[in-house]
Amino acid sequence: MSAVTLQPVTRGNWQGCAALQVSAEQRRLFPFSVLEWIAESRFEPSFELWAIEVDAIPVGFAVLGEDEETAEHWVIALMIDARFQRLGYGRAAMQLLIAKLAARPGCRRVLLGHRPNNAAAAALYTALGFVEIDRDDHEIVRALALAEAT
Ligand SMILES: CC(C)(COP(=O)(O)OP(=O)(O)OC[C@H]1O[C@@H](n2cnc3c(N)ncnc32)[C@H](O)[C@@H]1OP(=O)(O)O)[C@@H](O)C(=O)NCCC(=O)NCCS
């Protein structure tokens, strides 16, 4: 597999990111466009946008964020374009995102949420060690504990 990297979203690559889409079926489970995340980041100062690239081609998109009140670190969004799914890129990108957060002082765990019927997300996050900590009709929240910094 070619190397997956996380690249900052810039003037040079944002349009390539905005063209990424999940499948029509997945849109019911993940009803957000990359453009919406880019727009929301304008008003959410903690949002960090990452292009997921393979061989310098954007294949996916991710958003990290920190809750102002709790100081918890969240993977706000992760998507791989429908054309590039099931190639291991989602898992590799998630591992890079976790490593990025783990390197931050004071970051003890990573939180994320997904729709209860999003089987792909549930399988991916469970395999990476995330455990369910909360759920309602719309969302399952999962956490991954990080090793204590020495
Ligand atoms: C979830 C998502 C990011 C996975 O990306 P991906 O690159 O296809 O995933 P990978 O190829 O790295 O697969 C990793 C694991 O995810 C799970 N998985 C991925 N797609 C799956 C599917 N369609 N059905 C069931 N499990 C799936 C599997 O456990 C897989 O491991 P395996 O290949 O050993 O079986 C992708 O399906 C996606 O973008 N979905 C729409 C957006 C979304 O739902 N994001 C998550 C909620 S925030």
Tell me the radius of gyration.
Answer: 15 Å
Overall shape: globular
Largest sheet: 7 strands, mixed
- How far apart the termini lie comes to 33 Å
CATH fold assignment: Aminopeptidase
Number of structural units classed as domains: 1
The number of strands is 7
CATH class: Alpha Beta
Q: What hetero molecules are bound to the protein chains?
A: coenzyme A
**Percent range of helical residues:** 25-40%
* CATH architecture assignment: 3-Layer(aba) Sandwich
Strand content: 25-35%
- Structural class of the helix and strand makeup? alpha+beta
**Going by CATH, what is the homologous superfamily?**
Gcn5-related N-acetyltransferase (GNAT)
Description:
With 150 residues, the chain is α+β, with helices and mostly antiparallel strands. It has a single domain, classed as Aminopeptidase, CATH 3.40.630.30. 27% of the residues lie in helices and 31% in strands. The chain is built from 5 helices and 7 strands; from the N terminus they run βαααβββαβαββ. It has helices at residues 14-18, 24-27, 34-41, 89-102, 119-127, and strands at 4-8, 48-54, 57-66, 73-80, 109-114, 131-135, 140-145. Strands 1-2-3-4-5-7-6 form a 7-stranded mixed sheet. Strand 2 and strand 3 (57-66) form a beta hairpin. The radius of gyration is 15 Å and the shape is globular. The termini are far apart. It binds coenzyme A (COA). Coenzyme A (COA) binds next to strand 4, helix 4 and helix 5.
Write the layout of secondary structure elements.
Blueprint: E1 4-8, H1 14-18, H2 24-27, H3 34-41, E2 48-54, E3 57-66, E4 73-80, H4 89-102, E5 109-114, H5 119-127, E6 131-135, E7 140-145
Parallel strand pairs: 4-5
Antiparallel strand pairs: 1-2, 2-3, 3-4, 5-7, 6-7
Bound molecules: coenzyme A.
